[in-house]
Amino acid sequence: MSLATAAIIAAGRRMDRHGWVPATAGNLSVRLSPGLIAITRSGGHKGLLEPEDVIQVDLDGAPQRQGDRPSAETGLHCGIYRHFPEAGAVLHGHSVAVTVLSRLGGDAIRLSGYELLKAFPGLPTHDATITLPVFDNDQDIPRLQAAVGERWRQAEAVVPGYLIRGHGIYVWGADMPAALMRLEALEFMLACEMEQRRIA
Amino acid sequence: MSLATAAIIAAGRRMDRHGWVPATAGNLSVRLSPGLIAITRSGGHKGLLEPEDVIQVDLDGAPQRQGDRPSAETGLHCGIYRHFPEAGAVLHGHSVAVTVLSRLGGDAIRLSGYELLKAFPGLPTHDATITLPVFDNDQDIPRLQAAVGERWRQAEAVVPGYLIRGHGIYVWGADMPAALMRLEALEFMLACEMEQRRIA
Amino acid sequence: MSLATAAIIAAGRRMDRHGWVPATAGNLSVRLSPGLIAITRSGGHKGLLEPEDVIQVDLDGAPQRQGDRPSAETGLHCGIYRHFPEAGAVLHGHSVAVTVLSRLGGDAIRLSGYELLKAFPGLPTHDATITLPVFDNDQDIPRLQAAVGERWRQAEAVVPGYLIRGHGIYVWGADMPAALMRLEALEFMLACEMEQRRIA
Amino acid sequence: MSLATAAIIAAGRRMDRHGWVPATAGNLSVRLSPGLIAITRSGGHKGLLEPEDVIQVDLDGAPQRQGDRPSAETGLHCGIYRHFPEAGAVLHGHSVAVTVLSRLGGDAIRLSGYELLKAFPGLPTHDATITLPVFDNDQDIPRLQAAVGERWRQAEAVVPGYLIRGHGIYVWGADMPAALMRLEALEFMLACEMEQRRIA
User: Fold this and answer.
1) What is the pLDDT of residues A136-156, one digit of tens each?
2) Which pLDDT score is estimated for D62?
3) pLDDT at B200 over 80
4) Cα dist. A146→A35, A80, A105, A153, B168 in Å?
5) What is the pLDDT of residue C157?
6) 3-state secondary structure (DSSP) of residue C30
7) Residue of chain D whose Cα is closest to the Cα of A123
8) What are phi and psi of B162, to 5 degrees?
9) Spatial distance between the Cα atoms of C4 and D59, rounded to a whole number of angstroms
10) Is this complex scored with an ipTM above 0.95?
11) What single-letter DSSP state applies at residue B167?
C-alpha cells in the first residue's frame, strides 16, 4: 500500500469518526504527481476503506485502469487540482452543520472573529473574515465545476473551500494533513455558527 | 460463525456507536434463504452481540430451534421479508431524532433537497422528495404490521423505511451494507431536520 | 479481579463513552451479598477505573478495610440497597440532559409516550407514564437520603431512579446489566425531552 | 519517553476524543521542575502527539534545545507557571461551547448551582458561584498575558481557568489529572449553559 493510499484510508476513518462520511457519501483524493490523482472509487463506505478502494485518475478524471469507477464527483476534485497546482489533497464530506446552514439560502457563508481562521492562507490574525462560497447542488458535475471555476476567477482571494447546498463541503490543501486541518477548522466554525443561531 | 451472524454483530456495533440501540432496544436481521431469517434474540444489548444472540426464524417468525426467543418485533421484520422478496436485511433502531420528530405528530415525514436522497431507489437526483410513513406505536405487533402493509399497498412507490411514533425506525435493503447505508442516510437527514427546526 | 469489580470497571468505561462520568464525578456499586457492597472509591476518574479503585462497604457505608475512602455519596447507594432487597447494582452519573432539565425546577419529571418506558417494572406498554422524582442538591448526604426515603414511602409505585438538581441521576436494577439498561433508557428519554423543548 | 511526555500525549488524545483540539489548535504543558516546562511544539495535531512533539522551555518560554519551536501561546502557559508556583499542568483547548458563549460578549461567565463546582478550590459546596474571566482575543501574546495577570491581581480569589473570546479556554491544576479534571468540569458546565440558553 502506498503512502498516499494509507493517508486516504486514515483520513476516511477520521472523517467517519466525526460523522462526516455517512451512507457511502463523501470522497477523498491525493495528488500523486502533477497529472495523476489517487481518489476513492465510486460507492463503498469512506470510513471503511481498503487499499483496493483507492484508484488512479488523470486531471480529466479518466481512470488509469480499465474497469475502475471513480467517485461520481471526481470532476470536482480534478477541477481543484487543475486550477491550483499547489493543491496536494482534496476532501469532500457531509456534515449536519454544512447541510443545514447551506439550506438556509444565500451564495456565501461569512466566518469572522474565530481564532481558527488562522488555519487559512493570508489570514494570520483572528480579526479577518473568510467568505465560503455556497453553490446550488447540481447532478451535472461539469456544469457545477464550471460555476465553481467562474466564482474562483471573480474572487479577489480564493478560500480553499466551498459548500454545495444540501450536499456537503469541499476543502483542499498542500497535502493530506493540511487538508484535514482545514476541514476540521471549517467544520468547527460552522458548528459554532449553527449553535449561535439556536441561541440568538 | 456464519457470515450473516458476523454481519449482524458488526452492524449492531456500528449502530451502537451512533447511539441507535440504547437499553437493549433495536433489532437486526438478515435473510438466509427465501424462507429463513437470522434475527437478534429477545433482550440483550444489540451493541454487544455474541454469536449465540443470533437465532433463526421462518417467514412467520417461528423460531427454528426449540427454546429460542426471537425479538419482540420479529413480526415487523418478517412482514418486510414477505412483502419484498428482494429485501435481504432489515435494521430497527432508536435515535433521538426519530423519537422527537415522530412525536411532533402527523402520519409522514417529508425529506427533500438533500443529496443523500440519492441513497433511495428511483431517486437519482437530489431534487426529489421521499415520504417516510409514521405509524402510531402499538404493542400488538400483528396489528401494527397490518397497518404498515395497508400503507404499502396504497402507496404509489414504497420507500424502504418507516417510523413508529415515539419508538424508532425500520429500514431495509438488498443486503446488510445496503440497509446500513440507508439507515445512515435517513438518520443523517432526520438529524438535519431536527437542527433546522431549532434554528427556524 | 472479581466479576463484580470487572462489571463496575466495564460499566464505568461505558458511562464515560457517553460522557456521563466527567471530572471524577459519578459512582458505581454492586451488591456482593445481602450486607456487603462493592463501590468505587472517592476521587479517581470513573471512566479509567482499576481494580484497586473498587472497595467494599457494609449497608451503613462503613469501609471493610481500614484506610479505604468510599465515594462521598456512598450513603445514597446504601439507602437504595437497604430499601430495596432486590437491588443488585446502583449507578450514579452526570449528564447534560439531567443537569439542565433538573435545573428548570419542579420536584418531578414526567416521561410518557416512549417505547423505552418498557424498560421499567410494571410498565409493559408505551402508554404509561413514569414520574422521576427530582430532589434539591444537598451536601448533607444522610439528610438527602432521608428526603429520598420519604418520597419512596409516599409513592404508590417507586420508579427505580431519581434526579438530584444540578447534580445527576441515580438508577438501580437487579444486576449491573439491568442498571445499565435503565440508565441508558432514562438518559435517552431525557435527551429527547431536552430536544423537544428546543423545538417547541 | 518520560512520564511527563506520556501524560501530555494521553491528555491530548483524551481532549481530541472530546473534540477539544481541532485543526492543530490547543496546547498542553507540564512543569518538570520549578523553572522547566514540557510543552507541545508549534503545529501538529494535539490528538496525534508523538514524543518528539513535546519540547522543553524555561519560564520565559525560551526553548532549551536549539531549533525547537514551542507553541505560539507558550507565553500564556508560562504566565500561569510564573504566577502560580503550585501549578503543575496547563491545558488549552477549543470547544464549541467555549467559542459560542465567549462570543456572546461580556468579560466573565458566571457558573452557579452545579455539583461540579466542587472541582474548584475553596468551593466545597454546590451553592457557590465561580466567575470565569473572558478576555478579548489578541495575537500579541505578551499583551494578552499582561491583561490576564492584571485581572488576577484584582481578583479576590483566582479561579484556575479563563476564556479567550472566540478562541478557547485555559485551565490549570497541581498535576495533569487535576488539570484534566477541571477542564472536563468546566466544559461540562459550559455545555449545560449553552443547552439552557437554547431552551429558555
Assistant:
1) 999 999 999 999 999 999 988
2) 96
3) no
4) 20, 11, 21, 11, 42
5) 84
6) strand
7) D139
8) -160, 160
9) 48
10) no
11) T
- State the average pLDDT over residues B24-39: 97
The pLDDT score that the predictor gives to residue A164 is 97
Q: What is the pLDDT of residue B156?
A: 82
Is residue A62 within 8 angstroms of chain B, CB to CB? no
> Which of D42, D49, D96 to probe by mutation at the A interface, max A CB count within 10 Å?
D96
Rounded CA-CA distance D152/D158 in Å is 6
Q: Does D166 touch chain A (CB under 8 A)?
A: yes
| Amino acid present at A148 | V
pLDDT of residue B49 exceeding 60: yes
3-state secondary structure of A182: helix
pLDDT tens-digit map of B106-123 = 999 999 999 999 888 775
* Phi, psi (rounded to 5 degrees) for B24: 65, 10
| Count of other CB atoms within 10 angstroms of residue B110 | 10
Dist CA C80 CA C179 (whole Å): 12
User: Domain B3-199 has what CATH class?
Assistant: alpha beta
Neighbors of chain C with 3 or more C-beta pairs under 8 Å: B, D
C-alpha cell at A130: 473568510
Confirm if B101 and B94 have CB atoms less than 8 A apart.
Answer: no
DSSP type of residue A94: -
Is B51 buried (19+), middle (13-18) or exposed (0-12) by CB count in 10 A? exposed
Q: Which three-class secondary structure state does DSSP give residue C25?
A: coil
Fill in the DSSP letter of residue B63.
B
Hey, what's the cell of C91? Answer: 449507578
Q: Quick check: B188 and A103 CB within 8 A?
A: no
C-alpha A57: how far from its chain's center?
17
Query: Scanning the structure block, which residue is given the C-alpha cell 483540539?
Result: D21
How long is chain B? 200
pLDDT band, residue A200 (cuts 50/70/90): low
- C22-43 burial, b at 16+ Cβ within 10 Å, e below that, comes to bbbbbbbbbbeeeeebbbbbbe
**CA distances, D76 to each of B44, D61, D91, D149 (Å):** 50, 9, 10, 10
Question: Is residue D1 a contact partner of residue D51, using CB atoms and an 8 Å limit?
Answer: yes
Which tens digits make up the pLDDT trace of D76-131? 999 999 999 999 999 999 999 999 999 999 999 999 999 999 888 775 455 688 99
Q: Cell 478557547 appears where? A: D168
Q: Which of C19, C23, C104 sits opposite D181 (nearest CB)?
A: C23
Cβ proximity of C57 and C75 under 8 Å:
no
Cell of C71: 465515594
CA Rg, chain A, in Å? Answer: 16
The per-residue pLDDT for C125 is: 54
User: What is the C-alpha to C-alpha distance for residues C171 and C87, in angstroms, rounded to an integer?
Assistant: 10
| Residue D61, all three cell numbers | 518560554
- D25 reaches A (C-beta below 8 A): yes
Pairing label, strands A129-135, A108-112: antiparallel
Please report how many Cα atoms fall inside a 13 Å half-sphere around the Cα of residue B145, on the Cβ side. 17
What is the distance between the alpha carbons of residues D168 and D41, in angstroms, rounded to a whole number? 18
Positive/negative CA dihedral, A112, A114, A119, A125: positive
Any known ligand binding at D126? Answer: no
Any alpha helices (H) in chain D, and if so which ranges? 3-18, 74-83, 96-103, 141-154, 176-199
